[in-house]
Amino acid sequence: MTDLPLTNRQWLAKLVAGIVPGIMFSFGCMAIVGLLCGITGEPRTASAQFLMWLAVLVWLGVMGSCFLFRSGLRAWGVLGGAAMLVWGLFEILAKVTTA
Fold it and tell me: Transmembrane residues, as ranges (predicted)?
């Protein structure tokens, strides 16, 4: 495998990949934690505030690391795949916990 230098030639594609699938990934993480902890969603509770800030922190981590991908296509693939994986896991957990 050849070592390719990291470049920012495709910075716009990487940025949009961090925004669109990145926010879906962070919302999916928030949904899974909320489902597993049994949080009702009342916005004035401490647990709901924790979930809101958790989504922000995860998204900031994604936005900070989206420029480390070798290309915009790879950023879209990895972040989009991670978002689909998280939401698929949420669907499975939602069916298991309600059954």
Answer: 12-38, 50-70, 76-94
